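Encode chain A's predicted structure.
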Amino acid sequence: DPDVHFVKERAQRRPAKPEELALIPLFKEVV
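Encoded structure for chain A:
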């Protein structure tokens, strides 16, 4: 899923925001 990849790429460049971390489980459930 491009969205999951995008979030992971963002996390590698800088600390992920709490909102982004909260979205990751949602993306995994969708995939």
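The chain has one domain: 1-31.
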